[in-house]
Amino acid sequence: MRILVTGGAGFIGGHVVTALLDRGHDVRVLDALLPAVHTGGWPTSLDPRAERHHADVRELPDGALDGVDAVCHQAAMVGLGVDLQDLPAYVGHNDLGTAVLLAAMDRAGVARLVLASSMVVYGEGRYLCAEHGVVRPGPRTPQDLQLGRFEPSCPQCGLPLEPGTVPEDAPLDPRNVYAATKTAQEHLAASWARSTGGTAVALRYHNVYGPHMPKDTPYAGVASLFRSALARGEAPRVFEDGGQRRDFVHVRDVAHANLLALEALQDLQAEPPAGQLSAYNIASGVPHTVGDLAGELARVCDGPQPVVTGQYRLGDVRHIVASAHRARVELGFTAQISFADGVREFATAPLRG
Predict the structure, then answer these.
(1) Disulfide check for 277: which of 96, 154, 195, 200 has CB 3.0–4.6 Å away?
(2) Cα separations (Å) of 65 from 155, 167, 191, 284?
(3) Largest Cα–Cα distance in the chain?
């Protein structure tokens, strides 16, 4: 297939490009090369076999979709950002960009889409109350967070909750600007699929880490923030009490999931249903806490032990861990890189600056 990868020069996109090329697909990369992520133009890590176009997806150039069989849409602003003044940029890049792309796909007759989504669309994860079963806790209050009460409680009886794994059919409950834009991207893609009879797959990435992550910026993931601190000889600073549960999945596993999803779109027998969006959690299936990650990185780097600060961000959720069952059954995806092996590699892997 010939595949257009938007955001193909980015952290995840670059690994997707290599995975597709290694499988024998033709790859066209389109990337805006935003200065917040790309300080020196095209990254040296981008596979030289890919066709390159420096362009913003919101201003898709003529011919960008010529001869394209499928689109792998990775382009987005990520992370929580700095503050609400980032809101127009997030909506512009993520939602307007997706709308422009989908309209162009309709004009060009391109009917296959893999969308990079995120676990943030779920908000707080799945919780069980001993009294009321599965419940959805409300947003954590500043008052509770200031007092160090980080765990959500049952909204009906106030009892402590047991966190569980989130399936793809869980209600979407975005709780920050980035999450709202990723949810909107999924809705736009679903609307496009219904209107055109196209096939759309949303891959809900969990906490992705690995080589070529952006360095210490407000848009970087927590793994990069810890790694950057250790490189400076500083202790990683862990928010809350470090007990936040996440699923850390290696970027090469995520790239492989994109490959499997695109090839499922190519295979008529395995293709997800046309006219609708199919969502998949892309995760390792083995949860760890944020404190676990900081401690393991510090150990492997032989650096100072993490400092648990008690600080918090209102947009953060406490626990979000996925069920990876559907991706395993329907796409044949199983993460191959263990937490220990991935962190060991990441401790010395190059970051992009």
Answers:
(1) 200
(2) 48, 34, 20, 33
(3) 58
